[in-house]
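<derive_structure_tokens>
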Amino acid sequence: MNLEQIKNVLKNSHSVKNHEVLKTDLYILKKEAIAKKDEAKANEIWCLENINEIQLLFINAFNNLKKREYYEAWNDFSNIDIKLIYFRKHQVYYTDEYNLLYIEEYSRKFERLFPYRLFVSRETIIKKQKCSICNSEISIRKSCIHTLGELYMGEMCLRIIVEAQFIGAAIVEDPFDKYSVIFPQDLEYNYGILEELLNRLETPYEKWDLTVTKRIGERFINARRNALCPCGSENKYKYCCKNTQKELINHYDIKLNQNRSNNPILRYKEFGTWK
């Protein structure tokens, strides 16, 4: 396929098979552009390669959710986040010609339905790094002619970590590295709300609306001020969880596409993190 044919496929295809074929076609076309020293074309193909990878990741994430392979789907969505961070500066991103805005919106929606709340965050000191384009060593006092994040002959300039020192790790709620989910021993995550949604979705590009609100959990609704707190702390409720974030729980309202043939309804569910 030529570039125009590839662009048309990227605008319309939801098939894993098509995206896999495009990987090979784009690789060949970029190799030809590099051989001709056509940097503009090589850079354009880099953008199309990444669009193809992002679309493929989104389809794979949906398929993994359907197969109940939740952590695999989570990693797919995390990969989408990372790729979009580097891709946003390119003008083609700011239109939805290739469904990138849709993929970003719905990846975040799906992520909000996961029960993962705690992650490991590592602390390291980077001792040595180099430029991915020219392999020059980069430091505070030493740089090269290439700009981080810019494209050069079909490749993005990145920093390759050559040497790093591990300092420590912390348990956090909002990590940069979303892969590092904590899976406590003898506890099983509750994916109930994802299961409810995936039972009703047929394709990854089916629209649905999500509203998340904070409300008092059921065990706190009838709690008395001077009684023991329902959380089990053995302190009085008024000195423990009353009027704090601890007594609130997420409530999810999911509204399916009104054009569905199976009569979509407003879904209201409340699930704890653990089964």
